[in-house]
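SEQUENCE AND FOLD
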Amino acid sequence: MRICFIPIDNRPVCYNLPKDICAINSDIELFIPPRDLLGGLTKPAKTDALYDWMNTLPDDIDSFVISLDTLAYGGLIPSRRCSDTFEEVKARIEKFKQFFLNKKVYAFSSIMRISNNNVNEEEKEYWSEWGQKIFEFSYNSCKFKTPQPTDVPKEILEDYMNTRKRNFGINALYVDWQSEGVFETLIFSKDDCAEYGFNVSEAVMLQNWGAITKTGADEIPLTLLARAIEENIKIYVQYIEPEYKDKISNYEDVSIEESVLGQLALGGFEVVNSKQGADIVLVVNNFKEKQGELVMGWKTEPYRWGFRHPQKPYAVADVRYANGADEAFVETLFKSSLPEYGYAGWNTSANTLGSLLAGVKIKYNAIKSGKYNDIAFKKLQLIRYLDDWAYQSNVRRQIDAPCDIKELMTPYENRIFSLLGCKYDVFYAYPWDRKFEIEVLIN
């Protein structure tokens, strides 16, 4: 199977992770653009060069998994920052539309988020002073269904609203394309949602036009990758805290159960009501009342050692905490047996679920077809445990800024090597020069 994959940007979870997942199946040939063509934290993708690269692809590509923000704006972050007009963006994406005609395209576009803080690292410059106020204006205006008073300067508010209008207009254009049959699947992502806001209202309008919206962002290309692998897999969902599956995760606007079922549906899985009828059990280490977050100091009731191995092949979505693993639950896995179909616990609940399920689908299909690569699967798991457990839940809290973490990570490496039965030279980098994400490099 030949798949073309255009990531959101050049972060490891966007660029390396799909390659690591696809490597599990030796029958998948992944075509992904050179990393230097993609956008980063401060620079957009080279869209003209991406178009030229796509025109060098073989004619027999089976599926295209496309992040439309990359083609339209140069990436997810540039979609909030770039000053291009609607007409300029439309002209850019129209040539890609012609390329996609008569091809099997699984695409997603983001609904522009509204972060609830004054951090402008991924926003326009004025967010450092007015971000919280803009969020409040959005929240209250949508809650009360009329524009509310605000002290945000007029010119800043106009710029922000014009950017939203442009992006929503482009998304409306994609809905038209969908009606013309351009996309096999088209998803609009809801990133960092609250109960009310312009982004929530825009999602409702898109849904009223027949569009599909999903909470999340970075993981959606991976979920679409799973969807492109047309293999029927029966999944039974086992919640660690079943009576709390109606609780809403941090940075999301739906319950953890809705998030789980939404990712499974989009990924092309069949949910069954019994373990006996399942091919794989999806174990969800969910939270009570409120999702925790270790780096932010947000507490949650910890895991209480109630997990029993499901006696079926299983995978683990560790979402008790956002942005990192649940230490107690990981210890339980380490002392019993590691999940045969993988572990994930990175960033938001949707991020964890989407990335995990892509690996589940591809491993299952690989085993069934005789194309399974166990070395690649172990490398994927090594990276996830080192990133989600060792770094995010432990080492990250011990450092103040990006630095050489090799010595701090070595004890965790040795433990995981022992559990996985492998050993590699491992190095670490900070691709965006911030603590939030690392790149785990294996030789």
